[in-house]
Structure formats: structure tokens, C-alpha cells
Amino acid sequence: MQKLIKLILNSNVPLFFAIFCTLFVGYLSLADVSNIPKLEVENEDKLYHITAYFTLNTLWLVALIRYSLLKLKFNIIISLGIVILGIIIEVLQDRLTSYRTFDLYDILANSLGVALGLVCFEYYSKIIFKNIISNRK
Q1: Cα–Cα distance for residue pair 75/77, rounded to 1 Å
Q2: How many Cα atoms occupy the beta-carbon half-sphere of 68 within 13 Å?
Q3: Which of 63, 65, 58 lies closest to 79 in space, CA to CA?
Q4: Could you tell me if 73 and 80 are in contact, meaning their C-beta atoms sit under 8 angstroms apart?
Q5: 3-state SS of the chain?
Q6: Helices 44-63 and 104-128 meet at what angle, rounded to 10?
Q7: How far apart, in whole angstroms, are the C-alpha atoms of residue 10 and residue 4?
Q8: Among residues 70, 74, 101, 121, which one has the fewest Cβ atoms lying within 10 Å of its Cβ?
Q9: Of the listed ranges 22-26, 81-85, 96-100, 125-129, the one predicted with least confidence
């Protein structure tokens, strides 16, 4: 299993997924999604925001792991970049579309997803990736 993880981390696969996820989140954030079936969950859109930004941040942290492992400051900078992206997308929703609006609670949900992604990455990367990355050199 470590060989497979090492192979994936040494490839461009994580970067591809991070870029794809960024474009996908951007598209969904600016597209008219009113026709998508709704769940019967209160504040379901906030759950989507948390999930999307958790995933987005985690993918970027994994894609840049060779630079970020055991460097909390670098990981915080990546995470702040994702939060800024979420703010920019919220502004663009208000400026570029007539069917989406700026919502401060969406920014808070995005930020919560990013924070959860950072905390989980920091915890699990030390367990999962430490030996793999240190053996790469």
C-alpha cells in the first residue's frame, strides 16, 4: 500500500484532481443549479459548501504535499488561498449572475470546510505520509 501511495504522490495525479476540483467547484458555484433535486435537509446548501471546500482544500494539500509535509505555515497559506477563492466566487456570483447571490453564510461554510480539511490533513498526514515522504529522498 505504501508503494501505491508513493507512486501516486510522485505523479501529477493529485495535482490533476486538485485543478479539476477547483474548476468544478467554480463551475457549480456560478452555474444555475436550481433544477437539481433538493434533499429534505435544513440548510443543505451549507452542507454542500462545507463538503466542497473540505475536499478542495484537502486535494490541494495532498497535491502539494512534497512542499507542505510537516510545515504548518505552508499549509495555512494554501488554506487561506482556498478561503480567498471562496470569497472571490461569492462576489462573482453576485456580479456575474442573476440567479445567484452573495451570501456571507456561504463564506463561513466554505471557511469551515477549509478549516476541517486542514485539521484532518495535519492529523492524518503525520500518520500516513510521513514515512513515505521521508523515504523519497
Answers
A1: 5
A2: 22
A3: 58
A4: no
A5: CHHHHHHHHCCCHHHHHHHHHHHHHHHHHHCCCCCCCCCCCCCHHHHHHHHHHHHHHHHHHHHCHHHHCCCHHHHHHHHHHHHHHHHHHHHHHHHHCCCCCCCHHHHHHHHHHHHHHHHHHHHHHHHHCHHHHHCCC
A6: 40
A7: 10
A8: 101
A9: 125-129
Kindly report the CA angle at 86 between 83 and 90, in degrees rounded to 5?
145
What residue spans define the domains of the chain?
2-31+43-134
- The grid cell for 107 is 463564506
- C-alpha cell of 63? 497535491
Q: How many Cβ atoms are within 10 Å of 36's Cβ, its own excluded?
A: 10
The rounded mean pLDDT for the chain is 86
What is the total residue count of the chain? 137
Cα–Cα dist 66/111, whole Å: 24
